[in-house]
Specification:
Strand order of the largest sheet: 4-3-5
Radius of gyration: 12 Å
Helix content: under 10%
Structural class: mainly beta
Shape: globular
Largest sheet: 3 strands, antiparallel
Number of strands: 5
Strand content: 35-45%
């Protein structure tokens, strides 16, 4: 974590107050949140942060 409260994961800067988009790996539902929302609100499957690579 840097002095200004941000951290970097891979090449994507992360700020605790910044909203990110998460996508369901099963049904494709998208959720916007400031922290990982857990499971999909539609089907309970895992969500992934769209700002990170899926490689």
């Amino acid at each position: 974590m840097t002095a200004n409260g941000t951290s970097t994961t891979w090449d994507v800067a992360s700020d605790a107050g910044t909203e990110s988009t998460y996508e369901c790996l099963e049904c494709g539902t998208r959720v916007t949140a400031t922290s990982h929302p857990g499971n999909c609100p539609e089907c309970e499957a895992s969500l992934r942060n769209c700002a990170t690579s899926i490689e």
